[in-house]
Amino acid sequence: MEKHLKVSAIKDGTVIDHIPTKALFKVMKILQLEECLEMITFGNNLDSKAMGTKSIIKIANRFFADEEVNKIALVAPHAKLNTIRDYEVIEKRVVETPREIIGIINCFNPKCITNAETITTRFEVLSNKPITMKCLYCEKITNENEMVYS
Amino acid sequence: MKAKSLISITDFSKEEYLKIMRLAEDFEANPNQELLQGKVIATLFFEPSTRTRLSFETAINRLGGKIIGFSDSSSSSVSKGETLHDTIKMVSNYADMIIMRHPMEGSARYASEISSIPIINAGDGANQHPSQTLLDMYSMIKTQGTLDNLNLFMVGDLKYGRTVHSLLMAMLQFENPIFNFIAPQELVMPNEYKILLASHGIKYFEHSEFTEIINAADIIYMTRVQKERFIDPVEYEKVKNVYILRNEMLKNTKENLRILHPLPRINEIHTDVDDNPKAYYFTQAKNGVYARMAIIAHLLNLK
Ligand SMILES: [Zn+2]
């Protein structure tokens, strides 16, 4: 049985593994991969021992700073990043929930000013498991279930 | 450079709280000081609140400042669809300070990010109204001589009442407060505040009955129990007359006890309390002018 992933290898770039299946397109959006002109391959609904199914994204010639990649922590908290150079994994990273989340999600509070005018949202992360965060504008506390992605 | 603003009560440190208390006392002793001479203060009331606006405008007038602004958005360019962003940009070019009230939560924080001049939040929806808390604190220090070691009873709607939440946050900075919460089941103090108190090692007690337990109080902070807050109207009918303070209940209370209320009151304090020397809510409203003078002077570095 073919044990390798059904996604072709890349020479240089980044592999993001262990993305929850339902979060694949959110991750693409958060990392702004729609605008990326490099070769991107992805697999969805792949078998995973730990997760049941998972998604994987491979991006050629793209490397991510921690701040950039930590933005996906909200949707893919267990994602693992492999940095690839010349077909070799030279670095493995896990994502960490950032202390402040800028943009990405809308405030769940309909009376929040961020939902009335063009404002980049900002949230302070209060706890990781489960994720709760406080809107820095209306000061309301929101949790994972209430999050609305912009 | 961003100017110093007052958006939430937690924007100020304990030292700043105490400075505001000292300044308010000074302004009460000498109310007419021309510190704002040559200055223009904008009062932008995107939703009407006559009580708060008059209090601020009295404070500005006492300080010798000039006022521009509007008292409700239907009489301003806002009704023509101008964004808050543009209104604040424009006015911050005209005035030395903006005092604003707005129905959207977070509006004042947003304004403070746009504005080059100080903003005072005079209420952003159900979120914050920090000058109310500072006048409550001034009323407490004035009548008790201290903000330390006070036994504080909060009564009524402790779930939605922003005044009690802000006061609780501010009191975390002082020594050894004791909190007693008296509220109907539907309107109890939210857990986040109880967790906060516990993490500061502060004692609190919860009660659903409004009885002689108030005999231990230094301060009773009354709030309104509003019908709209109840999902089940039957529940409201059951409690609507339970959280009413009457003069006879004050018989065995402490000599130094004072009763506060952010006003307007509906029926939660019976009028027979008004003549009791422990009733303090009307003086509390008057203290608001001095507390607001102090906030303005502090933010503009005039004192
Ligand atoms: Zn918000």
How would you describe the overall organization of this protein?
- The complex is a heterodimer of chains A (150) and B (303).
- In chain A, 8% of the residues lie in helices and 39% in strands.
- Chain A is mainly beta and 150 residues long.
- Chain A folds into two domains: 13-94, Aspartate carbamoyltransferase regulatory subunit, N-terminal domain (Alpha-Beta Plaits), CATH 3.30.70.140; 100-149, Roll (SH3 type barrels), CATH 2.30.30.
- Chain A has a five-stranded antiparallel beta sheet, with no helix packed on it. In chain A, strands 6-8-9-10 form a four-stranded antiparallel beta sheet, with no helix packed on it.
- Chain A starts with 12 loop residues before the first strand and ends with a strand.
- Chain B is an alpha/beta fold and 303 residues long.
- In chain B, 36% of the residues lie in helices and 15% in strands.
- Chain B has nine helices and nine strands.
- In chain B, the strands form two sheets. Chain B has a five-stranded parallel beta sheet, covered by helices on one side. A four-stranded parallel beta sheet of chain B has the order 2-1-3-4, sandwiched between helices.
- In chain B, strand 5 (151-155), helix 6 (162-171) and strand 6 form a beta-alpha-beta unit.
- The longest helix of chain B has 19 residues, at 281-299.
- Chain B starts with 13 loop residues before the first helix and ends with a helix.
- Zinc ion is lined by residues 107, 109, 112, 114, 135, 137-138, 140 of chain A.
